[in-house]
């Protein structure tokens, strides 16, 4: 057992004294003693049921079901007497008797089959006739009704862990069985394919089709532990393989963040690994066509092209876009390559497009660029303020944990223009007009001060800037904020009171805060709320938590893949910071900040950028004002692209290098609450594909430079010498401990999970309140473009969809929808399910209309997962004034319906 921190209960099990947490069950005590009991209705992630009677023990002389009986202090528990074994065996035999013989077939990996083998119950005990049928409608979940024992584990998993409530038990008596709650086929139900029901089913009644059938996180063959490469939650996963291919991806029961849970992407969306569209050989452009080439040819051409660019325009004529999909070690190596080999700070990563305002805003407010607390702390909050985020879809494991906390009594305030996800369960749902966040946050702060809900002692001793903020907030009373944001003043006041009166409030936010013209102002104004409440760096609250969109958005920036900072966020303009890096690297570091991603494209269009290396990003699909991005790539003399597939960006490249995916790499990721975790290769990359780490080394070698740190472990160790904040982090330590947060300067001490308990990391050691005025967004609707478009994510897909559209996820979510309000659909003659053309001042896209009241009147929403629809041709060049993060959340558009025609699986017209 792990070390317990709370009260303990001591009991004796078969003569062995064990201690379990107070309130634990006898089953937990039995397991603590190293004894296994059958427990077919029990899963330690769920509330106990006590329905199967297979875990019977004797406690102080009384026979009881161990799973539902609390461990009483001093209790004496017996498990091994003959009569108890007979009772347990009889209970299992009764259950098995109603099942068909295949339930116990040789080689069946189910929990029930293993229990029967341990009790010497043979296949002949299964005498059921079967015939109840099944459901094969879902790509990832197969239902065999004949194997259902009505234990209810799947129903409780869906309700208690996932929070979707998609399953129920139907029928009576021996006919009771699981079914989708909506009736009809499983694929048409509310199921979000988290895999929890598959993982908990003890019989195989609910199973993953194919080679992963019957495998669960509780009982599995040997597997490779790694960290999910989709969103920034950082789920620990166990990857089961056979003959060099992935058989199943299972959530780790001891995962520090996911705790035995997963989502449809991490659990099931690995079909892209074996897609026939995977790139396996380098491609070189010859006579306008991309043609296969050898690695030696390709690396040689990259090296020659980079040298030619430097010769023609100097080091600043070269730029690189690194990737949140790459490991920390790869991002470290890319920025080192640009600074050491090329001699420029022109390196950036895709956090520029999502959370660069978080880095700037959190650093200005508190001193460091990460979230202030662990998610475990956030989950203990008694009031959750969730702003500009839809974690139920974009971060499903976090969304499920937040929902679980709300259902158990925490007050929930959601601020989001759309009525989706957590908003359905909120005590107060604030629906501000897109682009009015700063006014909304100032309105909440106004109420905190006006109603004496601020922590005066904290503000006096640990914060600065209150007089300036208080003066500004005089201009943001609830009525004026209501006029600006559209949020009723009564709702604003109610939300402020919930947050202001909570004993342990927490603040969680997403891209709805950052992706604006004034995104950094939004982050700082939001941080004001935590500072006013004294809810950061204290035990009176759980601070501010940004939800990172991609798996390594935090780490890519931590590693210095940014134009103005080195690893650990030391500024390139600081001589001391440069000197420390120079001492490790042995060469001068450029002192002038480099180009950000938008600046790279502008320089390319102007003829000033002569070589661009894009690593793992489909910038033609994901960057705003996509027509101008394409023009930049076509103008740049050399474009190199590392990719899994021939993406739209790769189609515009001169050299395409086939890259390894996250399931084929070695290294680390940093998740949204600053935890370093290991990434391990479960399978080899296909054909000649290589990890970006090896590719960067090869190009450096071809240019005559040895970058050192030949292994990912060596790269992280070297990073710790450049950035002391990471000095205590090594692969060996992570292999032993699992997850370690930064700051971690000492290998002998734990990392800082909760920040700022003693002082803030600002120059004066105080939290800094900000007083930016509300300024309007970059675009406003008018008669020509009367609607406001917000873009974001949906539950089944990830970013440009290059991985999730190559597998069963496309069956679950096959079409790129435009969500609009029924009133707007009527006004613009748009039919539900019909093709629509969406036009902005910048471009045109084609989508499929979906009408619902989730979207407010005057607003429309679409995702970014289907590049063929052209969504980012619509978005504008407007960007955050501090960080250049694009304003994806506010684009003025118009919509026109078209005659309904057939569509293909990708949402394009036939």
From TrEMBL:
It holds the Pfam family Fer2_4. It comes from the Bacteria. Its cofactor is [2Fe-2S] cluster. Coiled coil: none annotated. InterPro entries: 2Fe-2S_ferredoxin-like_sf, 2Fe-2S_ferredoxin-type, 4Fe4S_Fe-S-bd, 4Fe4S_Fe_S_CS, Asp_de-COase-like_dom_sf, Formate_Dh-H_N, Formate_DH_asu, MoPterin_dinucl-bd_dom. PROSITE patterns: 2FE2S_FER_2, 4FE4S_FER_1, 4FE4S_FER_2, 4FE4S_MOW_BIS_MGD, COMPLEX1_75K_1, MOLYBDOPTERIN_PROK_1, MOLYBDOPTERIN_PROK_2. Residues 139-170, 183-212 form the 4Fe-4S ferredoxin-type domain. GO terms for cellular component: membrane. NDH-1 shuttles electrons from NADH, via FMN and iron-sulfur (Fe-S) centers, to quinones in the respiratory chain. The immediate electron acceptor for the enzyme in this species is believed to be ubiquinone. Couples the redox reaction to proton translocation (for every two electrons transferred, four hydrogen ions are translocated across the cytoplasmic membrane), and thus conserves the redox energy in a proton gradient. This is NAD-dependent formate dehydrogenase alpha subunit.
């Amino acid at each position: 057992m792990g070390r317990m921190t709370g009260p303990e209960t001591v009991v004796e099990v078969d003569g062995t004294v064990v201690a379990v947490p107070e309130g634990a069950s006898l089953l937990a005590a039995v397991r603590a003693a190293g004894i296994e009991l059958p427990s077919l209705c029990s899963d330690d992630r769920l509330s106990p049921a006590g329905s199967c009677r297979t875990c019977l023990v004797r406690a102080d002389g009384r026979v009881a079901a161990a799973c539902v009986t609390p461990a009483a202090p001093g209790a004496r528990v017996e498990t091994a007497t003959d009569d108890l074994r007979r009772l347990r065996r009889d209970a299992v035999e009764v259950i098995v008797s109603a099942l068909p013989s295949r339930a116990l077939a040789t080689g069946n990996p189910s929990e029930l089959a293993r229990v029967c083998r341990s009790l010497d119950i043979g296949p002949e005990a299964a005498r059921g006739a079967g015939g109840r049928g099944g459901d094969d409608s879902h790509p990832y979940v197969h239902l065999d009704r004949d194997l259902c024992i009505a234990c209810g584990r799947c129903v409780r998993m869906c309700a208690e862990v996932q929070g979707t409530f998609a399953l129920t038990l139907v029928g009576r008596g021996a006919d009771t069985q699981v079914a989708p709650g909506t009736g009809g086929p499983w694929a048409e139900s509310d199921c979000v394919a988290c895999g929890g029901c598959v993982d908990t089913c003890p019989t195989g009644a609910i199973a993953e089709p194919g080679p992963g059938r019957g495998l669960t996180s509780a009982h599995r063959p040997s597997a490779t532990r790694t960290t999910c490469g989709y969103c920034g939650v950082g789920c620990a996963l166990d990857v089961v393989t056979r003959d060099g291919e992935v058989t199943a991806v299972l959530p780790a029961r001891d995962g520090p963040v996911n705790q035995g849970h997963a989502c449809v992407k991490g659990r099931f969306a690995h079909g892209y690994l074996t897609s026939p569209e995977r790139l396996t050989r380098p491609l070189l452009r010859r006579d306008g066509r991309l043609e296969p080439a050898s690695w030696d040819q390709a690396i040689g051409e990259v090296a020659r092209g980079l040298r030619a660019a430097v010769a023609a325009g100097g080091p600043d004529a070269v730029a690189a876009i690194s990737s949140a999909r790459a490991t920390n070690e790869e991002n470290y190596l890319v920025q080192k390559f640009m600074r050491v080999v090329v001699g420029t700070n022109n390196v950036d990563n895709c956090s520029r497009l999502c959370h660069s305002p978080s880095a700037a805003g959190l650093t200005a407010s508190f001193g460091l660029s990460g979230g202030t607390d662990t998610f475990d702390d956030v989950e203990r909050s008694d009031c959750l303020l969730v702003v500009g985020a839809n974690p139920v879809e974009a971060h499903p494991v976090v969304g499920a944990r937040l929902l679980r906390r709300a259902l158990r009594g925490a007050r929930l305030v959601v601020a989001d223009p759309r009525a989706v996800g957590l908003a359905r369960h909120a005590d107060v749902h604030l629906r501000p007009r897109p682009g009015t966040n700063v006014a909304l946050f100032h309105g909440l702060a106004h109420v905190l001060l006006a109603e004496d809900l601020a922590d005066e002692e904290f503000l006096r001793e640990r914060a600065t800037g209150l007089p300036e903020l208080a003066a500004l907030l005089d201009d943001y009373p609830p009525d004026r904020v209501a006029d600006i944001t559209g949020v009723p003043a009564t709702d604003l006041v109610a939300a402020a009171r919930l947050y202001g009166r909570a004993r342990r409030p927490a603040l969680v936010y997403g891209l709805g805060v950052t992706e604006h013209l004034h995104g950094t102002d939004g982050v700082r104004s939001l941080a004001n709320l935590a500072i006013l409440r004294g809810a950061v760096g204290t035990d009176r609250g759980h601070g501010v938590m940004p939800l990172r969109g991609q798996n390594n958005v935090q780490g890519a920036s931590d590693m210095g893949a940014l134009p103005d900072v080195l690893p650990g966020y030391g500024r390139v303009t600081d001589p001391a910071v440069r000197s420390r890096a120079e001492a490790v690297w042995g060469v001068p570091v450029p002192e002038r900040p480099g180009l950000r991603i938008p600046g790279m494209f502008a320089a390319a269009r102007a003829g000033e950028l002569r070589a661009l290396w894009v690593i793992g990003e489909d910038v033609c699909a994901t960057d705003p004002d996509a027509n101008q991005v394409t023009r930049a790539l076509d103008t740049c003399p050399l474009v190199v692209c590392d990719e899994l597939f021939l993406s739209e960006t790769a189609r515009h490249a001169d050299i395409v290098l086939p890259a390894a995916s996250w399931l084929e790499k070695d290294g680390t990721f940093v998740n949204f609450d600053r935890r370093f975790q290991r990434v391990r290769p479960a399978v080899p990359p296909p054909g000649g594909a290589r990890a970006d780490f090896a590719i960067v080394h090869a190009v450096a070698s071809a240019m005559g430079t040895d970058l050192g740190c030949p292994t990912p472990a060596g790269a992280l160790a070297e990073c710790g010498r450049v950035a002391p904040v990471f000095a205590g982090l090594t692969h060996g330590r992570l292999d032993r401990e699992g997850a370690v947060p930064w700051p971690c300067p000492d290998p002998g001490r734990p990392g800082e999970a909760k920040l700022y308990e003693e002082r803030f990391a600002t120059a004066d050691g105080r939290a800094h309140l900000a007083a930016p005025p509300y300024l309007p967004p970059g675009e406003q609707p008018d008669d020509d473009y009367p609607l406001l478009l917000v873009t974001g994510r949906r539950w089944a897909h990830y970013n440009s969809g290059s991985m999730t559209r190559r597998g069963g996820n496309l069956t679950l979510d096959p079409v790129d929808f435009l969500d609009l309000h029924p009133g707007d659909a009527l006004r613009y003659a748009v039919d539900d399910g019909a093709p629509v053309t969406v036009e902005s001042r910048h471009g045109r896209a084609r989508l499929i209309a979906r009408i619902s009241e989730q979207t407010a009147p005057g607003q429309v929403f679409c995702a970014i997962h289907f590049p063929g629809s052209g969504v980012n041709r619509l978005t504008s060049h407007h960007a955050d004034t501090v960080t250049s993060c694009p304003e994806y959340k506010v684009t003025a558009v118009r919509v026109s319906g078209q005659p309904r025609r057939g569509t293909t699986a990708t949402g394009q017209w036939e």
